């Protein structure tokens, strides 16, 4: 049987190896055609795998001696040749794996994708694309770029839209994904020159289902399947909603458990709160693909737990299974 | 008795005159030294005031025949000479009033402040400064600019910080207001050149209590008293948190009232939800001052209800009472 293989950098994230390895074992149990190469300290990996049940054919270990930690910078990609992040990227570059997943530091990972994997022909600036939950049941929105770049030019934005459209069609099964441009107003005349030019390009591209500008307040409305943005604004928007969401839920939790009387009533609403929190749980959406990298490259949140890693690994697997890279390359017509 | 006078443009907002006039009457009852000049269609204003109790010495009506509606653009300031917005601004320019408040369209209002009121000496780009609630009880954060400008240069940002510091000290009574710079990371090296230069200016200014960069996720953490930003990013951040906040509360409401059983439990938590929603009710924070305009100029949200208008009018009154303009001008040392 031919495996789909993920090179999984299990070092360098905030919570150690255990949640990473546990998440991988869970997914291996579900996807029999998946193989995972655990890249990192072999001894530590073996101790995590010890006594766990899994099909040994589906697992490899690639030992490395260095770690790029969360404080790591871009230069670490050059300095730490035997780090788990560098080696995982090299496994993909050398076609020993179909995709790479890491929970490690963002900046070195982007640099590593750039220097080790390279970019799809015609792409100058790959963009980070997380999946964000919306108020519409089972509907998500793809948002990019959220910070792989600061500035993007209108052509980058158009290419983000083309790649994300191919992704949305093949991985998420959306027929004609609606694309919107993040901007401070709905009118075509809003924003910087970059926005106005990007608007024109998107509108003029017959392969795209462009629905116009979208204001940040509608990010999670489910109006669009894809929201394209420069990296700076996308990052500001994403971090703003993450922050306020977390804060509001914390506040509500503290208010409804302040007295015993309230606690008792809150218990009866447990299921209701669960429904809301499942819908917006960022742990189910902790992964982002670096769209435009020459290979499939996923980053999971630095503070990922088992649930987060599982979600990111599953997304990685789905991207391989659905042959996203080829579909994006074709869509780019370059 | 010498009155503090607000020229109140009561036309052009989404909800008509009634909430505007009602809010004004409420505040007039509380502040005996306040006079309000209602600017707009006299007949409509009279009908709103009819049978209401208020001290007639505190009220004037200035009749106008035109309205700049929510779709109004910048040119309307020149075209509609007898609009309530233009006339209200002129009353302040001609020292017939100490401040102006409107719920009308944003773009014409900014243009009107620019052309009719002018700017404080040394200020090139006035900035919109709303007050945002934080998780810390009774603590708010001043955020500017949230969209009066797209781009701002580092010098604008420094002046925002100086003016907002003077405002925070005099109106909010904060001793040494903590100033932070909105950025995508905490390190000094993050963001665009503009951010790096602004960081240096803020750090080097001994009159400011600069605490460094702040990420959008901590906007409502209460860490800073003042957050300075370029207008574009500030707008994206503000609209993102407004959108997600509203959405989350809607979701929770719908989840806890889905069944009769849940509704009954939710009733017992009514007070708890009230506590949270009061804390984050944007209606209490619907007003923003255009900091840097030559006179005190407040904009209330276009969809303001009575509560929103009341909050904005109260902020306007406090700004007059505390002589903010002179304090800001002094602080600028220009």
UniProtKB/TrEMBL annotation, chains A, B:
One of its GO terms (cellular component) is cytoplasm. Pathway: Lipid metabolism; phospholipid metabolism. Keywords: Acyltransferase, Cytoplasm, Lipid biosynthesis, Lipid metabolism, Phospholipid biosynthesis, Phospholipid metabolism, Transferase. It is found in: Cytoplasm. Its main location: cytoplasm. It is an enzyme of class 2 (transferase). Its EC number is 2.3.1.274. GO terms for molecular function: phosphate:acyl-[acyl carrier protein] acyltransferase activity. It catalyses: a fatty acyl-[ACP] + phosphate = an acyl phosphate + holo-[ACP]. One of its GO terms (biological process) is fatty acid biosynthetic process. It holds the Pfam family FA_synthesis. InterPro entries: FA_synthesis, Phospholipid_synth_PlsX-like. Belongs to the PlsX family. Homodimer. Probably interacts with PlsY. Catalyzes the reversible formation of acyl-phosphate (acyl-PO(4)) from acyl-[acyl-carrier-protein] (acyl-ACP). This enzyme utilizes acyl-ACP as fatty acyl donor, but not acyl-CoA. This is Phosphate acyltransferase. It comes from Spiroplasma apis B31. The gene is plsX.
């Amino acid at each position: 049987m031919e495996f789909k293989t993920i090179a999984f950098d299990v070092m360098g994230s905030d919570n150690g190896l255990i949640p990473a390895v546990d998440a991988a074992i869970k997914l291996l149990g579900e996807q029999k055609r998946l193989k995972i190469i655990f890249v990192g300290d072999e001894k530590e990996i073996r101790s995590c795998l010890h006594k766990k049940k899994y099909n040994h054919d589906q697992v490899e270990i690639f030992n490395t001696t260095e770690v790029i930690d969360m404080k790591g910078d871009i230069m670490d990609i050059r300095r730490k040749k035997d780090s788990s992040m560098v080696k995982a990227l090299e496994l993909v570059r050398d076609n020993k794996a179909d995709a790479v997943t890491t929970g490690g530091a963002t900046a070195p990972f982007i640099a590593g994708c750039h220097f080790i994997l390279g970019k799809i022909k015609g792409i100058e600036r790959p963009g980070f694309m997380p999946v964000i939950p919306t108020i519409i049941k089972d509907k998500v929105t793809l948002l990019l770029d959220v910070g792989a770049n600061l500035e993007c030019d209108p052509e980058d934005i158009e290419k983000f839209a083309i790649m994300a459209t191919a992704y949305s069609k093949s991985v998420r099964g959306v027929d004609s994904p609606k694309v919107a441009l993040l901007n401070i107003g709905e009118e075509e005349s809003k924003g910087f020159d970059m926005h106005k030019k990007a608007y024109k390009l998107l509108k003029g591209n017959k392969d795209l289902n462009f629905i116009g500008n979208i204001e940040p307040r509608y990010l999670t409305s489910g109006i669009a399947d894809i929201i394209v943005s420069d990296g700076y604004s996308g990052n500001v928007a994403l971090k703003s909603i993450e922050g306020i969401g977390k804060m509001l839920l914390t506040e509500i939790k503290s208010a409804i458990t302040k007295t015993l009387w309230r606690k008792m009533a809150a218990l009866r609403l447990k299921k209701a709160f669960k429904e809301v929190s499942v819908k917006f749980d960022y742990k189910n959406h902790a992964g982002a693909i670096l769209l435009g990298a020459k290979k499939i490259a996923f980053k999971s949140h630095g503070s990922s737990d088992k649930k987060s890693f599982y979600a990111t690994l599953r997304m990685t697997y789905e991207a391989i299974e659905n042959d996203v890279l080829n579909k994006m390359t074709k869509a780019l017509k370059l």
